[in-house]
Amino acid sequence: MPTSSRPHDLMQLLTRAERTAARRLQAVLDEEGCSLDAWRVLALLSDGRGHHMTGIAEAVFLPPPTLTKLVDHLVDQNLVHRRVDPLDRRRILAHLTPRGQEYWRRVDRAVRADWPTLTDADGELLRTLLDRLAETLDARVTHT
Question: Is residue 11 part of a domain?
Answer without folding.
Answer: no
